[in-house]
Amino acid sequence: MTLRELAQERWLTVPNALSFVRLLGVPLFLWLLLGPQADGWALVVLVASGITDWLDGRIARALDQYSRLGELLDPLADRLYTVATLVAFLIRGIVPWWVLALIIGRDLVVSLALPLLRRKGYLAFPVLYIGKAATLNLLYAFPLLLLAQMDWPGAWIAEPVAYAFTAWGIALHLWSGALYLVQLVRSPVAAVT
């Protein structure tokens, strides 16, 4: 996309507004978890983030409101919620350090591979459905992990389900990272037009 095309693109769209609201929710979520430890309200913010994540994609498709900004904001919000949640959960003792290390370590490796991909003429890795499935599993795992920490009768049910979604999310996240690296190695040099 050229700079002229980017300047002419629609910036103010419903999906972009939803993604922006999701980004604003990250510091609120962190404060609720680490400040007053208001887990119930933090859960509400996290669930609202998941719903708006789903909605922005649906609305973008339904109203044909795709934008380059949206392509940047949506995954940024996903990553910020993932990192914020994992760091807060680590500080609170909800997850062990290695969960954070695996997820963030994979993201760092893929990020470090981007300059090599750009040297081959590509802007970014194509979205993989395995990566989307990993994010979806983690978006289910995080609220369930919070529910498992709360003092309520269903906590004992939420805990094993939360751990299962966490394990599946981590496995799929690592698998998608490996697939990105395979794509990098196999990708030919793009023709410059």
Question: Would you give an account of this structure?
Answer:
The protein is 79% helix and 0% strand. It is an all-alpha fold.
> Mean pLDDT, nearest integer?
87
Q: Give the total of domains.
A: 2
Secondary-structure element order, as H and E?
HHHHHHH
Q: How far apart lie the N and C ends?
A: 12 Å
Total number of strands: 0
Label the structural class.
Answer: mainly alpha
Give helix % range. over 70%
Portion in strands? under 5%
Radius of gyration: 18 Å
| Poorly predicted ranges | none
Query: If helices are DSSP runs of H or I spanning 4 or more residues, what is the number of helices?
Result: 7
Largest sheet: none
The shape, in one word, is globular
Write the layout of secondary structure elements.
Elements: H1 3-8, H2 14-34, H3 39-62, H4 68-92, H5 97-119, H6 129-149, H7 155-186
Helix pairs in contact: 2-3, 2-4, 3-6, 4-5, 5-7, 6-7
How would you concisely characterize the structure shown here?
This protein has 193 residues and is mainly α.
List the keywords.
single chain; 193 residues; 7 helices; 2 domains; mainly alpha
